[in-house]
């Protein structure tokens, strides 16, 4: 599914499907996002690596809008503070192949085409649990020192009472005959947190998700005044954005036109006419915690 989104899609990519958005789950996610322009952020939860991943996936981050990059990094810094997971760029720090990039991903589609801050959080890192620091997330599985394996086994023994390793036992395979099974309990120790550590591992992720919601733009009425001037009234309306993010959410959304400009509609009392200004006016976007005013002059005398 996470290679099936209509961004940098390529046939043959594992999980890409037959065409972009061709899987019903992917299509449902696309339609939901498109039909809800009030979405300001997204977090996809995967396993494993213990890291928060941000776009871009295809290009170096110095090619993206620098205002958005700064916002991504500040949000990521808070994510690290709340969860302990580092926040990194997919392009620079999470490539499976240095000569290739991951295609058709949800968070790339969200940012590039919808102007939404999309993240992928890879839950759980057995290396971090064992005290292994500053390792390369992908390259480690190709090459790492034997000492790291010994550290992990030691952690299994101390934290899990040895549950991370299954003792070898014989098994009669219908085609291969007698074989032995055992070794790492990959599904319950590497790919996912052990059951008894699951709640501790995921609880901070809820705090992170709530915090990311709280930095959303919040358009509010600051003041509305009607000052009489004879039979006419001067209307002064001031709106402000008390949220941290701009009303466009990202500069990307404003540049592509996905984020529509602020629209103010004026409804006049009966028998009143507009003397100056417009009944419908557009006012661009508001940066985070900023304000913008609008003026109109109307009269109760319809002559």
Give a short overview.
The protein has nine helices and twelve strands.
Structure, described:
By secondary structure, the protein is α+β, with helices and mostly antiparallel strands. It folds into three domains: about 25-125 and about 195-215, 3-Layer(aba) Sandwich (Aminopeptidase), CATH 3.40.630; about 135-190, no CATH class; about 220-300. About 30% of the residues lie in helices and about 25% in strands. α2 packs antiparallel against α8. The model has no long low-confidence stretch (mean pLDDT about 90).
Going across the major beta sheet, what is the strand order? 1-4-2-3
CATH topology (level 3) name of the largest domain: Aminopeptidase
CATH superfamily of the largest domain: Zn peptidases
**Overall number of strands:** 12
For the record, give the distance between the C-alpha atoms at the N and C termini, rounded to a whole number: 64 Å
Q: Based on CA inertia axes, which overall geometry fits?
A: elongated
The secondary-structure class comes to alpha+beta
- Helix count equals 9
Q: Under the CATH scheme, which class of the largest domain?
A: Alpha Beta
How large a portion of the residues is in β-strands, by DSSP E? 25-35%
């Amino acid at each position: 599914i996470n290679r099936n989104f209509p961004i940098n899609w390529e046939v043959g990519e594992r999980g890409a499907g037959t065409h972009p958005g061709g899987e019903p789950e992917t299509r449902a996610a696309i339609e939901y996002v498109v039909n809800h322009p009030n979405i300001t952020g997204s977090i996809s939860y995967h396993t494993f690596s213990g890291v928060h991943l941000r776009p871009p996936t295809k290009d170096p981050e110095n090619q993206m809008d620098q205002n958005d990059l700064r916002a991504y990094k500040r949000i990521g810094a808070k994510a690290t503070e709340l969860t302990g997971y580092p926040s990194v760029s997919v392009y620079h720090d999470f490539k499976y192949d240095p000569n290739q990039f991951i295609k058709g991903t949800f968070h790339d589609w969200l940012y590039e085409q919808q102007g939404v801050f999309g993240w992928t959080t890879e839950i759980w890192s057995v290396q971090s649990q064992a005290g292994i620091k500053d390792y390369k997330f992908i390259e480690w599985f190709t090459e790492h020192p034997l000492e790291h394996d010994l550290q992990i086994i030691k952690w299994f023994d101390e934290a899990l009472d040895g549950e991370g390793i299954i003792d070898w036992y014989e098994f009669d395979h219908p085609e291969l005959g007698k074989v032995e099974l055992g070794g790492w309990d990959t599904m319950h120790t590497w790919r996912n947190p052990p059951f008894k550590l699951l709640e501790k591992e995921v609880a901070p992720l809820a705090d992170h998700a709530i915090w990311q919601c709280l930095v959303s733009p919040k358009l509010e009425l600051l003041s509305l005044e009607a000052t009489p001037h004879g039979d006419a009234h001067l209307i002064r309306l001031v709106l402000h954005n008390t949220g941290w993010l701009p009303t466009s959410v990202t500069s990307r959304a404003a540049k592509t036109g996905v984020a529509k400009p602020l629209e103010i509609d004026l409804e006049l009392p009966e028998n009143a006419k507009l003397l100056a200004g417009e009944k419908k006016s557009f006012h661009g976007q508001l940066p985070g915690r900023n304000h913008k005013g609008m003026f109109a002059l109307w009269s109760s005398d319809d002559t």
